[in-house]
Amino acid sequence: MLLYNSAVSGNCYKVRLLAAHLGISLELVELDVVDRSNRPGLIGHLNPALRVPTLVLDDGRPLAESNAIIDYLAEGTEYLPAHRYERAQILGWQFFEQYEIEPNLAVARFFKLFNVTPSEETLNSKHAGGDKALQALERGLTGKTFLVGERYSVADISLYGYTHVAAEGGFDLSPYPSILAWIDRVAAQPGHIKIDG
Amino acid sequence: MLLYNSAVSGNCYKVRLLAAHLGISLELVELDVVDRSNRPGLIGHLNPALRVPTLVLDDGRPLAESNAIIDYLAEGTEYLPAHRYERAQILGWQFFEQYEIEPNLAVARFFKLFNVTPSEETLNSKHAGGDKALQALERGLTGKTFLVGERYSVADISLYGYTHVAAEGGFDLSPYPSILAWIDRVAAQPGHIKIDG
Question: Which CATH number fits domain A84-187: 3.40.50.300, 3.30.1130.10, 3.40.50.1100, 1.20.1050.10?
Answer without folding.
Answer: 1.20.1050.10
